[in-house]
Amino acid sequence: MKYSCDNCGNEFDLMPSRLELYNKHYCKAQCKYEAEKMFNPDIAVFIEDLWKHPITELGAMYGVSVKTIHKFIKKNNITNKPGRGYWQKYEAGLI
Questions:
Q1: pTM of the model
Q2: Which of 23, 35, 83, 92 falls between 20 and 30 A from 67, CA-CA?
Q3: Domain ranges for the chain
């Protein structure tokens, strides 16, 4: 099965069982690195999304890894974010 790289557009073959290891579809590690390096959303929109979705979902929405989301939060000194356990409490109806 042929896939198209989200960063450079090259076509490549990848076994379906390995797709989840590559977060999105990138032909090589360098393309994934470049795509994550370009991650620079509008901070106001990002903070709004941060309170609407867990970080794992944000990574999938923006097409980057969870680590990239954490680095962006730290680099931009975003302190207004859900604390640890927020989403579990939210799903349990405690918030």
A1: 0.59
A2: 92
A3: 1-38, 40-95
